[in-house]
Amino acid sequence: MTTAPKLVIASLVTLAGCYPTPEFDSVPRIEYAAIDQSTEKDAAGNKLVELVTITVTFEDKEGDLGATAAERSDDDFKAQYGGTGNYELVTMTQKSDGSWDERILQGDSVKWMPVLKPDGKSGPINGKLDLNVRRPYARSMVDLQQKYKVRIRDRALHYSNQVETDVITVPGYE
What we know:
- This protein has 174 residues and is mostly beta strands.
- It has helices at 3-16, 69-73, 75-80, and strands spanning 29-41, 47-60, 87-94, 100-103, 125-136, 142-152, 163-164, 168-172.
């Protein structure tokens, strides 16, 4: 190999190492990206479940987001989170007078994301997270207008900012 190609390769390797490390905060930060839904039906075409996917983008300085399956089964680990998961999902249902009723539903109170940096090394990460919510259908349910407030927690128990989704229609009780 001649000197010119060696110099080009060395320059490219040097330049590849010059990207600055992102300057994220120790407190995770999220932004609302999207909300999607689909309907699961049985063979006869009857609606069974409304599947809602809330997508947020995230960034975190230490990359300490998520929990392993073993940790999610460990009562001592879960106790650190106060009986909830590392997602907080507040469901907001529109009332007939146009106001919004806010609550954390039982099935939504313990939501977990997997470990997002499996190598365990501290360092900045960013990306997208999909939170899946199931809203089952039943005979006495009606269509409700809902939106959600979402925030996440890292392993140091720092809460992110809270974001709010767009409004969707799902089955529920008035």
